[in-house]
Amino acid sequence: MSIESSISPSVDDMDKQLIEILNGLIHLCHDAHAGYMKAAEGINSSAYKTMFAEYALQRGRFATQLGNFVEDHGGDPGDDGHAMNMFIRGWANIIPVLMGGDYGAIFAECERSEDAAKKAYECVMEKGIPKDIFPVIEQQYEQITEAHDRIHNLREAYYLEHKN
């Protein structure tokens, strides 16, 4: 092994790292898709059903976009590998929260899950992501932040309205 190859990773290693990172985001998007679908199915308000369903579809689109990049770099977007454990995942408590029926708690769980997604995207954007992929990740991050902020505002408004 040459000194040069031990200092900088090969293109294949760089692709493998990128694929792992993107697959981690894909898994987050799949989790969010499933979580938002459960929220849409479990809430009574038609306006919130629509909002949650739209966010679910959005996350499905995000996963597809990221999956295309994974394939472009020779990877399998369905490969779990290490990707599933790369980021803190949300949505674990959505079903129990939905069963409770408290809209404030539902909004809080969605917001908590979006916090985890935002942190994952922030972590990824700090890495050396290729210039052709970075704008897509940045755009997805901005849309996740918009969803987070909307849900945060709904949670705050709900708690103000139902205070005592």
What distinguishing features does this structure have?
disordered N terminus, elongated, Ferritin, 164 residues, 74% helix, mainly alpha, 6 helices
In short:
The chain has 164 residues and is an all-alpha fold. The chain is built from 6 helices and no strands.
Explain the layout of strands and helices.
Layout: H1 3-7, H2 11-42, H3 46-72, H4 94-100, H5 103-125, H6 134-161
Helix pairs in contact: 2-3, 2-4, 2-5, 3-6, 4-5, 5-6
Care to describe what's here?
This protein has 164 residues and is mainly α. It has a single domain (10-161), classed as Ferritin, CATH 1.20.1260.10. Helices cover 74% and strands 0% of the residues. The protein is built from 6 helices and no strands. It has helices at 3-7, 11-42, 46-72, 94-100, 103-125, 134-161. Helix 4 runs antiparallel to helix 5 (103-125). The radius of gyration is 18 Å and the shape is elongated.
Please tell me the total number of domains: 1
Structural class estimated from helices and strands = mainly alpha
Return the CATH class. Answer: Mainly Alpha
- Residue share in helix: over 70%
Q: What is the CA-CA span between the terminal residues?
A: 70 Å
| Second rung of CATH, namely the architecture | Up-down Bundle
